[in-house]
Amino acid sequence: MTDEGMVCGPSSGIHAARGSVRDGLAALQNFENLLRSPRIGPRSIGRIVGELRGSCAAIGNALDVLIDELALREPAADVVGQLSSHAREYMRQLDAALLRADRGDLGAKTRIALENDVHRLSAELGALRRLIDLLETATRARPTELEAAELVEASINAMASNGSAHGPGVGVLASLPLAPLAVITDPRAAMHLVELGVGWVAAAGVRFVCVTVSVSEGPLAVVHIGPGSGGAGMTMCTAAAMIAPSLEVARLAAQCLGASFTHQGTSCELCFPARTSGSLRSAPASS
Q1: Is residue 47 part of a domain?
Q2: How far apart are CA 77 and CA 21, in angstroms?
């Protein structure tokens, strides 16, 4: 991990770490695309392998900075330690894969093995980065009131345009309430939670997902995500890739928002504090 001075330093250090991770993962995805191209020869691949090996330490250090910052905000959360362990293991595997390629002849067999390793690790590191982003947002939540329907629709639109999510393709259909139902939450964090819910269901092999919004006592807005069927209004999306800490992160992030995230079998459920038109009408008049 990074030393305390780096973690407690100015916010510019955190911004720089985010940029390093973003740029490093973009370079990894670009390399994956180059590996698939028959026009890129072994010499060019070998040069890029050397450059990526040189940047691995910078990516790992930047992940440490971001995770250490989360540990300061949530010191009792075991899942932050899990994120740290997974970050180090992914970076170790990436460096080992690049080292094998650097020492090999980069023939067809070596190149295919490297492509498979880079594809998997790019997906896992991307999923890890999104979990870090979710906890960063949830621990600095700015709750606001928005329509539950808008939250779900925005989440589906985000998944439909997210070509770098690395998860499986899935059809998503929303079943929304007719009556106004406002959730009180941080919009960005809540969207990430809905996306994780769809990712969990898709990871179980479900290819058509239904996101249903209802209201329960509290009042609470209940977002149920489970198997559905294709039909009119369905949107084709790229689900979020899931890694081992994903569910624990989702539960912690929901808790930070005053919400809850539960799962069972091939379904999961999010419950947010809400306000209905009825609760607004029944509120006592101010004197």
Answers
A1: yes
A2: 23
Q: How far apart are CA 56 and CA 90, in angstroms?
A: 10
- The stretch 7-36 carries a mean pLDDT of 86
Residues 278 and 160 in one domain: yes
Element (H, E) at 151: helix 148-160
Task: List the helix and strand counts (H, then E) for the chain.
Answer: 9, 8
Range(s) of the domain holding residue 52: 4-138
Flag whether the pTM goes above 0.85. yes
Question: How far lies 228's CA from each of 190, 223, 265, 270, in Å?
Answer: 22, 14, 14, 17
pLDDT digits (tens, 9 = 90+) for 199-256: 999 999 999 999 999 999 889 999 999 999 877 889 999 998 999 999 999 999 999 9
> Which pairs from 142-145 meet CB under 8 Å and 24+ separation?
142/186, 143/184, 143/185, 143/186, 143/257, 143/258, 144/184, 144/185, 144/186, 144/187, 145/182, 145/183, 145/184, 145/275
Task: Decide: 188 and 127 in contact? Cβ < 8 Å.
Answer: no
Residue 23: count other Cβ atoms within 10 Å of its Cβ.
14
What is the count of structural domains for the chain?
A: 2
